[in-house]
Design goal:
This protein has 103 residues and is mostly beta strands. Helices cover 0% and strands 44% of the residues. It has one domain: Rieske Iron-sulfur Protein (3-layer Sandwich), CATH 2.102.10.10. It has a three-stranded antiparallel β-sheet with strand order 1-9-8, with no helix packed on it. A three-stranded antiparallel β-sheet has the order 2-3-4, with no helix packed on it. It has a three-stranded antiparallel β-sheet with strand order 5-6-7, with no helix packed on it.
Length: 103
C-alpha cells in the first residue's frame, strides 16, 4: 500500500497528477469519490489528467475522455467500451484523510 495524497488536498471537482514509484497517477475527485488511473492513455500515452469528464450516453458522468484522440475510459474500471485497450485503474484505500493505492 503506497501513500498517494491527503484527501483534503483535492477538493471535489479537482484532480492531481502524482508520481509514485516512477508511475504517473492521475487522481480525480468527482462527486464524492476518488479515482486513481495510470495517467498514460493505453492508445498513445496521452495524459488522462488533462481529459474531460463525461458520461456514457445519458448516464451519470463517470468517464474521462483522453485529450489526444478522444478515447474514453470508465473512471472506476478503466473500461473503454470496445476500444482495443483499457486504462489502468489502481485500487484506492482511504484511511481517515489519507489516500493509498495498490500498485
Ligand atoms: S493517446 Fe489517448 S486517445 Fe490517443
Amino acid at each position: 500500500m503506497i501513500f498517494l495524497a491527503k484527501a483534503a488536498e483535492i477538493p471535489d471537482g479537482a484532480r492531481k497528477l502524482i508520481q509514485v514509484n516512477g508511475i504517473s497517477v492521475a487522481l480525480f475527485h468527482h462527486e464524492g469519490r476518488f479515482y486513481a488511473l495510470n495517467n498514460a492513455c493505453p492508445h498513445r500515452q496521452g495524459p488522462l489528467i488533462r481529459g474531460v469528464l463525461e458520461s456514457w450516453g445519458e448516464g451519470p458522468v463517470c468517464a474521462v475522455r483522453c485529450p489526444m484522440h478522444g478515447w474514453k475510459f470508465d473512471l472506476a474500471t478503466g473500461d473503454s467500451h470496445g476500444r482495443p485497450g483499457n486504462a489502468t485503474v489502481y485500487p484506492l484505500i482511504r484511511q481517515n484523510d489519507e489516500l493509498y493505492i495498490e500498485l
